[in-house]
Design brief:
single chain, 529 residues, alpha/beta, TIM Barrel, Oligo-1,6-glucosidase, domain 2, Immunoglobulin-like, 3 domains, eight-stranded parallel β-sheet, six-stranded antiparallel β-sheet, 21 strands, binds 1-deoxynojirimycin, GH, alpha-amylase activity, Alpha-glucosidase
């Protein structure tokens, strides 16, 4: 038995124990029938999320953007892209969500702008060394004719992280696509612009921000070469995997978040921010949620854990003390728009789906906050998107399949595409598979044993845990993980055969349970009597 003690779930702020549902804006609901999701579509489906039982919605970027990285390339941070609607549609969405008791978290993309942003266009038109260029990271190339990049950094999407400006000596840094130039956060103008952006959306009543690439804003000032061990990776990993990372997780980035904390604290209602920070250690991750910085950070170790009791136990027992040390609340994340869906990661098919439900039940029982990704409540799996249909910029840069497979639009009803995604006919922006007819919301609603009804039941059961203690003890016995949290016992069987079911009253189960705990199944138990 190993103890893993308490975390900062003590405290009344809503986000410490919230279940947040991630809406990938292009793919949730299409209001106007153009095959791409939009804000009015999302607003029309908010009652579904209220009925599902989540507390908050995180919307991926819907700002003006040429959409080279589907909105993570922002051309105007204070306007809505016409593809998704208008500012008044955003206001309607926020107001409707609040009326339904749902909080709204919007995405903030501070590491880079779009190449179409007025600042970058001005920078390209200006001279080297000008104030316009000083908002970004322009540097002189190496080699006698400056034809080599200024350093050896690689883009997360593959290939060099630098693009040359025409035939000049100058190159600009982009840790992602060439259309996403990195800002220079040592320039006070940049910091000021984002303080204004925060206030713009806070004034429009958003409850929080998801901070894109939160660990990337500051680079080591010299922009020196990275010491690489082994082959550079072309797989989507936003840092946190090399020993030497002069582009990620620099100490000065925390000054930015101290400033942001003060801005958020100026507003009522416990406004918050959650960091997308890929770090090498859990302690480094926890630094983003110190009491005067951001409020949460995604727990990517939980995403990365393999299907094994020992792997899950290791993440729980490292996450909780690290968060306790800084008074932060942990998060539990299994899927998002950048990774393969967890049903597929755990093996796919019926087995993968059963395991995914089981892992979800464990997540929902742990102290802290949980993040769900749209469609996981339907048991959706990664789609094998045909090469001609792929749209992820990393596919164009690396030839690797990329992230389109988890971004295929939601199936709501009907027996053929677009499955009620919108009023249009035919396939939406990424084609939906035929096999989804049996996985639509309509097909699962009210059906006992469906994944959707499992999520509803588990989220309802979770509501009784609000006062549960934040201390847990964790035990691994063979393939079985047991987590005890006050009166709640969570048991997960990662093995291939049934395991003994401990005594107690069954509060929730991820699948059918008899006298034993079947393989690939999790339960919540409370003491009987
Ligand atoms: C992380 C986002 O989640 C991902 O979708 C995006 O491509 C990169 N940041 C760049 O903004």
């Amino acid at each position: 038995m190993s103890g893993a003690s308490g975390i900062g779930t003590v405290g009344t702020e809503w986000w410490r124990h919230a279940v947040v549902y991630q809406v990938y804006v292009r793919s949730f609901a299409d209001g106007d029938g153009d095959g791409v999701g939009d804000l009015p579509g999302i607003t029309s489906r908010l009652p579904y999320l209220r009925d599902l039982g989540v507390d908050a919605v995180w919307l991926t970027p819907f700002y003006r953007s040429p959409q080279h990285d589907h909105g993570y390339d922002v051309a105007d941070y204070t306007d809505v892209d016409p593809l998704f609607g208008s500012l008044s549609d955003a206001d309607d969405l926020i107001a409707t969500a609040h009326d339904l008791g749902l909080r709204v978290i919007v995405d903030l993309v501070p590491n880079h702008t779009s190449g179409d942003h007025v600042w970058f266009q001005a920078a390209l038109a200006a001279e080297p060394g000008s104030p316009e260029r000083a908002r970004y990271l322009f540097r002189t190339g190496r080699g006698t004719d400056a034809s080599e990049p200024p350093n050896n950094w690689r883009s997360v999407f593959g290939g060099p992280a630098w693009t040359r400006v025409g035939h000049t000596d100058q190159w600009y840094l982009h840790l992602f696509d060439t259309s996403q130039p990195d800002l220079d956060w040592r320039n006070p103008e940049v910091a000021q612009m984002f303080l204004d952006v925060l206030r713009f959306w806070l004034d429009r009543s958003v409850d929080g921000f998801r901070v894109d690439v939160a660990h990337g804003l500051l680079k080591e000032a010299s922009l020196r070469d990275q010491r690489l061990v082994g082959e550079a990776s072309d797989i989507f990993e936003v840092g946190g995997h090399e020993d030497d990372e002069p582009m990620w997780d620099q100490p000065e980035v925390h000054d930015v978040y101290r400033q942001w904390h003060a801005v958020l604290a100026d507003y009522d209602g416990d406004r918050m921010a959650v960091a997308e920070a890929w770090t090498t250690t859990v302690e480094a991750n926890a630094r983003y949620v110190r009491s005067d910085e951001l409020h949460q950070a995604f727990n990517f170790d939980w995403v990365m854990a393999s299907w094994s009791a020992a792997a899950f136990a290791a993440v729980v027992t490292t996450t909780l003390p690290a968060m306790t040390a800084v008074g932060g609340a942990p998060t539990w994340v299994l899927s998002n728009h950048d990774v393969h869906r967890h049903a597929t990661r755990y093996g796919g098919g019926e087995t993968g789906r059963a395991r995914a439900r089981a892992a979800t039940l464990v997540s929902l029982g742990l102290p802290g906050s949980a993040y769900l990704y749209q469609g996981e409540e339907l048991g959706l799996e990664e789609v094998d998107v045909a090469p001609d249909d792929r749209q992820d910029p990393s596919w164009f840069r690396t030839g690797q399949p990329g992230r389109d497979g988890c971004r295929v639009p939601m199936p709501w009803s009907g027996d053929h595409p677009p499955y009620g995604f919108g009023p249009g006919t035919g396939q939406p922006w990424l084609p939906q598979p035929d096999a989804w007819a049996s996985l639509t919301v309509a097909a699962q609603q009210g059906v006992e044993g469906s994944t959707l009804e499992f999520y509803r039941g588990a989220l309802a059961a979770r509501r009784s845990l609000t006062d549960a203690p934040s201390e847990v003890s964790v035990e691994v016995s063979g393939d079985v993980l047991t987590v005890v949290r006050g009166d709640l016992t969570i048991v997960l069987n990662c093995g291939a055969s049934p395991a003994p079911l401990p005594a107690g009253t069954l509060v929730a189960a991820s699948g059918p349970v008899g006298e034993d705990l079947p393989a690939d199944t999790a339960v919540w138990l409370t003491p009987t009597g």
